[in-house]
Design brief:
The complex is a heterotrimer.
Chain A: H1 2-16, H2 20-53, H3 59-69, H4 74-85, H5 100-136, H6 141-151, H7 153-168, H8 172-178, H9 188-197, H10 201-229
Chain B: E1 7-16, E2 19-29, E3 34-38, H1 45-53, E4 60-64, H2 69-74, E5 76-79, H3 90-100, H4 105-118, H5 134-146, E6 152-156, H6 164-179, E7 183-187, H7 191-197, E8 200-205, E9 208-214, H8 215-220, H9 225-232
Parallel strand pairs in B: 3-7, 3-8, 5-6, 6-7
Antiparallel strand pairs in B: 1-2, 1-4, 8-9
Helix pairs in contact in B: 3-4, 3-5, 5-6
Chain C: H1 2-20, E1 23-30, H2 31-35, H3 38-50, E2 52-59, H4 61-70, E3 75-78, H5 81-89, E4 97-109, H6 122-132, E5 136-138, H7 144-155, E6 167-169, H8 174-184, E7 187-191, H9 192-197, E8 204-208, E9 215-222, H10 233-243, H11 246-253, E10 256-257, E11 260-261, E12 264-265
Parallel strand pairs in C: 1-2, 1-3, 5-6, 5-7
Antiparallel strand pairs in C: 3-9, 4-7, 4-8, 4-9, 4-12, 10-11
The chains are: A mainly alpha, B alpha/beta, C alpha/beta.
């Protein structure tokens, strides 16, 4: 309990004084996760729309696979990405290991199945509603997907936020591929793991509170943006 | 004048999971005006319209437009019994068919606003379409179909469950479209409406065209006992 | 227009990265070294003296060696002699330079139920713990500390595999294992630096230290550039020269926590 209080007060002081180190790793956390989120969404949304609209041979298999991969252990993703990006691995020449880019790749892989699965659910429902109309209007496959993605944008926002939550709180994979290097790849979660390892529970908790605060702030911010767009109907 | 017509249908059948929905149907559609499809529930009215429009599977037979199929599909529209509203504003719903045809955004919106104004939706342009009343939604569905100036327009019971005023407004829109040269094919279960609008009648019974003819002739003296019974208001099975 | 802006932004970002690049090299170090806090003293000085930014990958010895083998770092700084020799024998490193040592200590509950406080050797302390079946936490992660612990059990003629439930191999880093020991009020073998810097001591204290067998030699091993041509050998050499210099000696020997010296510099500069 003592640690909790001292963690809360430390978190408070770290934030009001805008501790430069804290600001640095918090911004890096945001940068890495938001980048991963953008890339993952660009992959997941069209994939989800395609799975809803097109009937092809491996469709069901891919959907089942995506659902299964939602629970993918991040550590495993981290190890696989490590093996690929290692200097001795197939993509070693790129020299990406232990850089923020590697962390973005790992997080992207972790959240694509999650975002795609949730997005697919809502796009499928919308497709059931729109099916006859769009077929009647003789729209192209691409226009179908575009219309469905645009018109389910609120549900897709929720999917993206779920992905954001999973990515920003993730530690196993980015520890392996990022390496938790001070001033280079250290983010909030890896810093928390580090401080916990040192037995500095109060500081670890303080960072944890900052992480929670950050996640809440981003969620609220995006919801607010979505609401101002047009009177919260869909 | 109408590139699509005549439409020649020979022995067309639509089946789903082994069950015949409609057919075999043979008919010719040409000239101008409004063709009204009537018949008891389950006779296959919706299936027939879908088959002609090309959104139901053609299991056997042929449906032959006077122009290539892609061109024909592009120059026709369909209004469903229960309007499907895109989750967008009224304006964007109406502009949608133009947008997918590559019309620039500003022009598409201007034309959509123009149409909406004509049918009395002008004050609702920025409203989400899903919150409109049933009559407003059906009017929106109608202008969304008419905005591409289709040469053939199919309507499946467009006035089911609408009140008198909305029905009158929609009929006015339909007559105006007919006068502009659009060929209309609509189904209805409202014999009053059929009498008001029809230039030509198709009486559908058990998936086949049982009786047909120019409206005046048909309503004055149907050739078959089933059509006579149906017009009298008897249950036909 | 949009596209142009994006490209411009990307170009600027690339230039910014290029501009900030002084010399950067990566070195894998063990958790215990990093937890000691010595890195926080040495790295800024290295940056100042050599204009070299050393990026540390803080991992267990096993992983550090693996990173070296794969060529994912430029050099490693570890403390497990047998593993280091195997690494050199495999041709993964060019050579091994001893830098400094610290020592391992036995930590346990203040009450010392196994009575190891006044034992004469590390082996005797372990025998007492096993005899009393006092709760014991082992790193169990193939790290240098873990390997040292196993070699001590072996020296005491005890078989870890046959131990009962009092022996807990947690498979975790030094800090996490200390947290576990603190929670279970258990005995544990730790390096002195990690212990002194540890913030969650609870009812634990240092019970036994001093047996020479507990000395913990740190060595610096550059990654073999013949195997991994991208390794920055020039920087690696520069860092090595600095690590064995008088300047490093002064900093390492002068580093204390609560007045206690942690490391003894023992490199022989040629």
């Amino acid at each position: 309990m003592v640690d909790l209080w001292s963690g809360l007060s430390q978190a408070f002081w770290l934030m009001v004084t805008l501790d430069p180190e804290l600001v640095e790793i918090a911004l890096r956390s945001l940068r890495v996760t938001l980048s991963a989120l953008v890339v993952a969404s660009l992959i997941a949304f069209p994939l989800a729309a395609m799975l809803a609209v097109r009937r092809f041979r491996w469709r069901r298999t891919i959907i089942a696979l995506l659902n299964a991969l939602m629970g993918l252990p991040p550590v495993v993703v981290g190890l696989i990405v490590y093996v690929f990006l290692s200097r001795s691995g197939p993509l070693g020449v790129l020299g990406l290991l232990f850089t923020p880019t590697a962390m973005i790749i790992a997080q992207t892989i972790i959240i694509v199945p999650l975002i795609a699965s949730i997005a697919h659910q809502s796009i499928r429902e919308l497709w059931a509603e729109y099916h006859d109309l769009l077929i009647s209007m003789n729209v192209t496959e691409w226009q179908k997907m575009h219309t469905l993605i645009w018109d389910s944008r609120r549900a897709l926002l929720t999917a993206a936020l779920a992905g954001f939550g999973r990515a920003i709180g993730e530690v196993g994979a980015i520890m392996i591929v990022g390496g938790n290097i001070d001033h280079a790849t250290r983010v909030l979660t890896t810093a928390i793991a580090l401080e916990t390892g040192k037995g500095e529970f109060a500081l670890a908790l303080a960072l944890g509170f900052v992480l929670i605060g950050l996640a809440v702030a981003v969620n609220l911010g995006i919801h607010w943006l979505g609401r101002t767009e047009r009177g919260g109907r869909w | 004048m109408n590139r699509l017509l005549p439409l020649a249908v020979t022995e067309a059948v639509s089946r789903k999971r082994g069950q015949t929905l409609v057919g075999p149907i043979s008919l010719r559609l040409e000239g101008q005006g409004i063709t009204v499809v009537i018949g008891p529930n389950g006779a296959g009215k919706t299936s027939l319209l879908s088959l002609l429009h090309g959104i139901a599977r053609l299991s056997s037979g042929t449906v032959q437009w006077a122009c290539p199929i892609e061109e024909a599909r592009h120059a026709q529209a369909f209004v469903f019994q229960r309007p499907v509203m895109l989750r967008r504003s009224v304006l964007e719903n109406a502009a949608y068919p133009l947008r997918i045809r590559g019309v620039a955004k500003a022009e598409a919106r201007a034309r959509a606003a123009d149409w909406a104004e004509q049918v009395g939706l002008g004050a609702l342009l920025e409203r989400p379409a899903t919150v409109l009343s049933g009559g407003e939604q059906q009017k929106l569905a109608l202008i969304r179909a008419l905005i591409i100036e289709p040469e053939v327009l199919f309507l499946d019971e467009p006035c089911a469950s609408l009140d008198g005023r909305a029905m009158r407004e929609i009929e006015e829109i339909l007559l105006a479209a007919r006068d502009r040269g659009t060929r209309l094919v609509m189904s209805t279960h409202d014999m009053g409406q059929a009498r008001r609008l029809a230039d030509e009648v198709l009486f559908l019974f058990r998936g086949r065209i049982h009786d047909s003819g120019p409206a005046g002739v048909f309503f004055d003296g149907p050739a078959t006992p089933q059509a006579r019974a149906f017009l009298r208001g008897d249950i036909v099975e | 227009m949009m596209m142009k802006k994006l490209m411009l932004g990307a170009a600027l970002a690339v230039m910014a990265t290029a501009a900030q690049a002084t010399d950067v090299m990566k070195m894998a170090v063990t958790t215990s070294f990093n937890n000691s806090g010595l890195a926080d003293v040495l790295l800024p000085e290295i940056k100042k003296d050599l204009d070299l930014e050393v990026q540390l990958l803080v991992v267990g010895t096993g992983q550090a060696i693996k990173l070296g083998e794969q060529g994912d770092v430029d050099a490693i700084l570890v403390h497990s002699r047998p593993a280091e020799e195997k690494y050199l024998a495999g041709g993964f490193g060019t050579h091994r330079t001893e830098i400094m040592y610290n020592d391992f200590v036995f930590i346990g509950p203040k009450a010392d139920p196994a009575g190891i406080k006044d034992d004469a050797s590390a082996v005797e302390a372990l025998k007492d713990i096993a005899g009393a079946e006092a709760t014991f936490v082992s790193r169990g992660d193939d790290s240098g500390t873990h390997k040292k612990e196993l070699s001590l059990w072996k020296a005491a003629d005890l078989d870890v595999a046959g131990f009962g439930s009092w022996y807990n191999a947690v498979g975790a880093g030094m800090g996490a294992a200390l947290n576990t020991a603190s929670g279970m009020n258990a005995y544990i073998l730790a390096d002195r630096a990690s212990w002194l810097n540890f913030g969650n001591k609870a009812d634990l204290e240092l019970l036994y230290a001093g047996d020479p067998v507990l000395f913990n030699q740190y060595a610096y091993l550059p990654v073999n550039p013949e195997l991994h041509p991208h390794v920055q050998t020039a920087l690696v050499d520069k860092l090595e020269k600095w690590l064995v210099s008088d300047r490093a000696e002064e900093l390492i020997n002068g580093y204390t926590i609560n007045g206690e010296t942690l490391f003894v510099f023992n490199a022989n500069a040629e």
